Amino acid sequence: MKFNQWTLGLAAVGVVSLASAARADETKMSQVQTALSNTTLSGYVDVSAQFNPGGGGTTGDFFPSAYPAPQNTATGPNYNLGNKANQISLNVVDLALDKPLDESPWAAGYHVELWLGPDGTTLGTSSSDSQAAIRSAYIALRTPVGNGIDWKIGVFDTIIGYESLTSGNNPNYSRSFGFNIEPTTHTGALASYKVNDIVTLQGGIANTSFDGSAYTAEINNSGANGVNGGLSSPTLIGGASLTAPDSFGWAKGAVLSGVIINTSEGTAADGDTTGATSYYVGATVPTPIAKLKFGGSFDYLNVHSGGNTWNLAGYSTYAFNDKLSLNLRYEHLSGTSSLNGGAYTTYADYYGNGENNAADEITATIQYNLWANVISRVEARWDHVEHGNGYSSVSSTELNQSEAWLLAAQLIYTF
């Protein structure tokens, strides 16, 4: 046993004995080992190759106007035309440490998840040029009220939306329009209560702010985008989900969920104030054909200072076997002009004709898991702007095309 100089000095004058100090150190080590024994390490490495026929490049020339980025960045983990077009890319390395809640009435645990790589800049939880960011970091607690209330206190993923920040949990490589008109991360407190096997309720409060064009995570009320969130102008989160029981036959396991997130007006750097409310309804439904599943979602974003955007999406998945599946998605996005010109709520700025606009997209993704622990995908996507031109060609920075194509391949190794 090696002792530090302070302990040796106390032992020399008889204040402590080396034997008791050794026992104390062993007790501390035992406590640390016990705490870590239930901690798990997991994560994934996400890479892709992307080809954009007729347009693209690394300067963002092909960035479609119909793709506002998540949170407060212009190159989010959505379509990534601006910084990933026509090249092979590392998307992100995800590392997570977990100590999940056990079944005890006063259970406690934690979750820490980090993003390393280009997509780390998209979360709004670090400086804009940093490729290392906090994806989530919260303390998990349970209070024995009724069936037990589970808490997340810290930084956590939003509860709104059909798609996840974790690409491997989604049916497609590219993100949806709906994903990009939702917040992605919150800092605050979230409570979940399972009423029974059918009904689950969630509610919380967060620092998230909205600057007129994007949500911001606002870790420690950092004031990103010049907007102050926090308890003085809080974001309120509420949601409920229904899960079909076994008595529903082939429809058992179907999930219907609804979420409302209201971000109050905050004070912007230029003195303007704004806020937004997001509404979401989504469902995933099995079918009598066991291999076929459908899903749907509706997002509505209302900017308090004026304007709105809504998106309707439909999903289908057909699993040919345990390894091979086909995933399809169709969306229609529509926006009206916003008083503050927010990217989510107006596309007139991109065309110069003052028109409100709409966009459609169709995505087809084939997933085949050839290697153990590896998700492998190929994807084709077509986008179309209904009025004007939302996309540029390789040779021009002008928006001179009304449609865009994406061909992509993706590999994700999970551990």
Describe the structure concisely.
It contains 4 helices and 18 strands. By secondary structure, the protein is mainly β.
Q: Helical region count?
A: 4
What is the arithmetic mean of pLDDT? 78
Order of H and E elements: HHEHEEEEEEEEEEEEEEHEEE
Corresponding CATH superfamily of the largest domain: Porin
What shape does the CA trace take? globular
Number of domains: 2
Rg for CA atoms: 24 Å
Cα separation of the termini: 36 Å
* Major sheet strand order: 1-2-3-4-5-6-7-10-11-12-13-14-15-16-17-18
| Beta fraction | 35-45%
The SS-based structural class is mainly beta
> What top-tier CATH class of the largest domain fits best?
Mainly Beta
- What characterizes the major β-sheet? 16 strands, antiparallel, barrel
Query: How would you describe the oligomerization state of the chains in this entry?
Result: single chain
User: Total number of β-strand segments?
Assistant: 18
Report the CATH architecture of the largest domain.
Beta Barrel
Briefly note the CATH topology name of the largest domain: Porin
Which regions contain 5 or more consecutive residues with pLDDT less than 50?
A: 56-81, 222-228, 338-354
What does this entry look like structurally?
The chain has 415 residues and is mostly beta strands. The protein has two domains: 1-37, no CATH class; 38-414, Porin. Helices cover 9% and strands 45% of the residues. The protein is built from four helices and 18 strands. It is globular and about 80 Å long.
Keywords:
single chain; 415 residues; mainly beta; Porin; 2 domains; 16-stranded antiparallel beta barrel; two-stranded antiparallel sheet; 4 helices; 18 strands
